[in-house]
Structures are given as structure tokens and as C-alpha cells.
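Internal tracking record. Fields below are filled automatically when a chain is submitted to the structure queue. Please do not edit lines marked as system-generated. If the sequence contains nonstandard residues, flag them in the REMARKS field before resubmitting.
Queue: standard
Priority: normal
Entity type: single polypeptide chain
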Amino acid sequence: MASQREVKTRIASFKNIQKITRAMEAVSAARLRRAEQRIAALRPYADALRRMTRQAAKDAGTEASRLPLLAVHEHEERIGILLVTADRGLAGAFNSQILRAGLRIGAEVDSERKTPVWFATGRRGVSSLNFRGKPLDGAYTGFTDRPSYADARRIADDLTTGYVDGRLDRVEIVYNGYVSPLTQRVTRETLLPISQATVLGEGDEQERQGPRALVDYEPDAEEILRVLLPDYVEISLYRALLESTASEHGARMTAMRSASENAGELIEDLALEMNRARQAEITQEIMEVVAGAESLV
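SYSTEM-GENERATED OUTPUT FOLLOWS
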């Protein structure tokens, strides 16, 4: 059995850890509220832009297929895979589940005799892919706590340039979609070509069922699409970054709360152990006193 001093040292260590985890939980909770506000403000705009883009593509008809971001490459050989992870850990399975999903997609691409081209945001994803020997065509770090639209634009420029130049034939993106602080859903989207995009906005079902408004385009639908398509890619990436940020803070808040509770349980167990050690020492001292008294009789 450990001595009282050893148990006291362990209790003090766990109390210090508990202070740190509680502080990290409070910080993540504050950042999560701000991230939720940013997502709530962006979602209506992103959904409206996507609906507008799809409607303009339908109205443009066959002319839309001439636009590079809508055109489907005849032969798919190089598939871009963008993994959206975090710069930091201590967030439970937040980063590992994205990496597992991305590696599964890469295995699928390899099984189809195609070449995966890796991109990653966040130091965790970048370092993990480098460790696994996956060469990166794009690594973006230092902003996952609070991504800006400029960050999304920088990533979108690299991906769209690669697609237009023919270095990429399709682009997939994998990120944690935010549901609640306790729930993050791994989401896989086809980002390019936009004609095969798998993202559906919140108002899409209503758009399909309801009457469609007549729209007049000036100068024409094709010219408007040339402006909308880059914005479509950028806003899709920006939304994915914000969803991932909120998911990260929610996962870290939950993980730190569990760590604090576990530390509390360990402190209680150690307190019981210390009491047992104290009782054992007292009992030993009493036995020594009794033995000494008996020897004097």
C-alpha cells in the first residue's frame, strides 16, 4: 500500500489536471457559442447561393457544360481528397475519425486504379498524412480555431486551379458536420465538378416541391454562372471550415468535461486510499505501543 505522502502527491497532481481541464472546457464553451453564431448567420446565405447557382445552371442549359467548373472530365484519373482537421488535439475522436474516413476514401480510389491527391487543413491532418507517407499537394494550417473567408478562398483557388488545369479530375472533401456539442457527423461531399456536387441545402426539398419562379437574367445565365461558380466553391469550403470549427470546440468541451469528471472520481478513490493508509499507520502505531507496554510487564 502506498504511503500517505505518495497518495497526497497523486491527489495534488489530479487536482491540478482537473483545474486545467475545467479551464479548457470553459474556453471551448465560449468559442463554441461564437462558432454557432457564425454558422447560423452563414447557412441561409450559403443555401440561397447554392439554389441560385443550380437554377442558373438549369436555365443556361447546354451552354453551362462549357464552363470548366461544371464540366465533367471524360477520364477520371486523379481524385483530390481534402481532409478538414484541427491544429490541436485533446478533442476526443474529432481528428481521428476524419483521418479514418479519408484513408478509406483513398483506399477506394486506389482500388479503382485511380490516384488520390491529398490536401489537408489543420496540423493534425497534415502531420498524420506525412507520417503515413501520403504526399500533400496542399497543407493549410494556423487558422482552424477561427477560420476566415480568406482562408476558404485560398484553398478554393488551389482546388479550382487544379481542376481547371486538369491536374484534378474530381475533388472530395471530408469534414465533421456540426449537429450539437455532443454530436459531430463525418460528412463527405463532392466539391468539384459542381454539376456532381452532393451538397443539398436546407431549402432544397421545398424548392423541388414548390412552384418555381420565373427569372430574367442580365446579361445571360452563362455569364452570371461564371461569377457564381467560384463563389459557390468558396462558400462551400467556408461552410465546411465553420462546421468543423464548431465541431472541434464541441468535441473538446465534451472531452474536457469527461476528463474533469474522471479526475474527480480518481481524487475520491485516492482520498479513500489515503484514509485507509492513515488508518493502517495508526493501527500499526497502536500495535507497537501495546507491544512495548506488554514487554515492560
